[in-house]
Amino acid sequence: MPNLPELGVGIVYVPGLEPLLESGDSPVDVLEIEPQTLWHYRPKNKPAYSFPSEAIQHLNTFPQRKIVHSIGFAVGGSQQPDSDFLSALATSVECLGAPWASEHLSFTSARGSQGHFHAGFMLPGAQTPEGIALAVRNIRTFAHHLPVPFAVETAVNYLQPRPGELRDGEYVARVVSEADCGILLDLHNIWTNEQNGRQRVDEFLSTIPLERVWEIHLGGGREYQGFWLDAHSGAVPKDVMALAKDVVPRLPNLKAIIFEIFPTFVPIVGVDVIGQELVNIQAIWRRRRQPNDEMGRDAPQGFIPTYVKETEEEGFATSPAIWERTLGELVTRGESAGPLADQLEKDPGVPLIRELVWKFRAGAIVNVLNWASTLIMLQCGDEFFEKQLDRYFKSTSPQPFASEEAGCFIQYLRTQDLDVPYLQETLDFEEAAMAALLTKEAQVIRARHNLHALLNALADGQVPHDLEEGSYEIEIPPNDEVNSNVKICT
Q1: Is the confidence at residue 479, as pLDDT, over 90?
Q2: What is the model's pTM?
Q3: Under 8 Å between Cβ of 315 and 343
Q4: CA 475 – CA 282 distance, rounded (Å)
Q5: Residue 187: phi, psi to the nearest 5?
């Protein structure tokens, strides 16, 4: 095992947590950084990915140590990351001084009939010997390019267990043992899997090599349409906290426990409540390496896991590439062909994932194209806007970066000849604002109407009408406050 520092209790960094991080008695010892949320992606450039210096400087103002958790290219599939991506990830690790890095044991991209496509979601890989070999190959590729040790996160899986696949624990154990990497044990993920009908948590934990667990993730979730979702939406469920209390003493190489919450839930839950949750997790952290009567103080360490023999039953007699293509097409485009597609269509997890992919994509578009989205909904209604999203999603695969998703949606809208006054000028503005942020250079566009009046009306939730016409030149600065800082010349 690598000699890693004990970092303590931390949280995934999102804007809005600053009061919690800067306080003198902060319960946060370490920040986990998801670098892709901060990268700028310009596919026509070399390198395509960049970590803005201002983002690095901002993160390094916080006194906490940092670790890197990648969310850009899950390692559990047949597709391999490109060298630009790995180089940018290595740079992120070095800039933040992270002692280790991690990624998900899932897949996020596949190759279909029309070429490579992004799935828009962390999807379960093929839990077969061939799938294990591909995951091991990808993990070794990551480890070779990174200057620090590498770990994989135990994944959530909304699909029902299938005949012919290895059980979840056996799959993880074989991957990490053969790849010789660490484990990021997401306790909420494996608890969620049990709630949704997959392997019991105690069976999972009895199978994986616990001495390889360097880090734990804890988070909240919620019920939805008969499923429990790994939603990162608030407090950790009591059963998961009890599970953490029991398992932490059994982890001889545990170096950090990280609380996860999505940015949209930070203002809803509140910084004070999040702080108290971290205080509770601190008490669990202090239990590491202490005797644990409930789960057995003599639990074996460094054991060699045993595996259930793969069955010959029909159900997973397919290659990982076909598995990824079929599942990816079903959850992104709603259709795929072949016997596997017919089987998967009967799994209640597939329509759930399809809906979650839709919501994630829609959220990215509305967040980046707030003005255009607001204009369309005010002029034509929410249902009309959702229909446009539906048509776009069926015609275009998900994009790995929100800026790319927004850019593709802009191009789609330009081809639709929609009867939405001021839409083209709003799209010009949104496109230029994105370009200003990505290039760090001011952008200049021309318009027939006063865009200040347009944006002010939208900000007030009003349908813009009878805007003053003229010949306007608008300069858009390279920052987030484009509404107040645009310069308009007539």
Answers
A1: no
A2: 0.90
A3: yes
A4: 49
A5: -70, -35
SS3 state of residue 11? strand
Per-residue confidence band for 291, with pLDDT thresholds at 50, 70 and 90: low
Answer yes or no: are the C-beta atoms of 278 and 11 closer than 8 Å: yes
Q: Is 334 helix (H, G, I), strand (E, B) or coil?
A: coil
Domains within the chain, CATH numbers bracketed? 8-285 (3.20.20.150), 369-489 (no CATH)
138 Cβ contact list (under 8 Å, min separation 6):
75, 76, 77, 80, 81
129-145 vs 168-179: helix crossing angle, rounded to 10: 40
C-beta neighbour count of 139 within 10 angstroms: 23
Rounded to a whole number, what is the distance in angstroms from the first to the last CA of the chain? 66
Q: How many CB atoms lie within 10 A of CB 457?
A: 18
Question: Residue 245 has which token pair?
Answer: 């209390």
Alpha-helical runs (H) found in 108-200: 129-145, 168-179, 187-195
What 3-state class would DSSP assign to 303?
Answer: coil
The secondary element (H helix, E strand) that includes residue 471 is strand 469-476
How many Å apart are CA 102 and CA 76, to the nearest integer?
13
Angle, CA 398 vertex, CA 397 and CA 404 arms, to 5°: 110
- Calpha distance 233→222 (Å, rounded): 7
Question: In angstroms, rounded to a whole number, what is the distance separating the alpha carbons of residues 459 and 371?
Answer: 8
Helix (H, G, I), strand (E, B) or coil at 340: helix
Q: What is the largest CA-CA distance in the chain?
A: 80
Average pLDDT in the chain: 91
Q: Which residue has the tokens 């210096």?
A: 53
Q: Angle at CA 356, nearest 5°, toward 355 and 357?
A: 90
Q: At residue 173, does pLDDT exceed 50?
A: yes
Angle, to 10 degrees, between the axis of helix 129-145 and the axis of helix 320-332?
80
Query: What's the rounded Cα separation, in Å, for the pair 76 and 152?
Result: 9
Query: Which residue shows structure tokens 């789960």?
Result: 295
Q: Where are the beta strands (DSSP E) in 176-279?
A: 182-186, 213-219, 222-224, 227-229, 256-260
pLDDT digits (tens, 9 = 90+) for 264-276: 999 999 999 999 9
Residue type, 169: G
C-alpha distance from residue 64 to each of 23, 29, 93, 129, 377 (Å) = 11, 5, 15, 40, 42
pLDDT band with cut points at 50, 70 and 90 for residue 439: confident
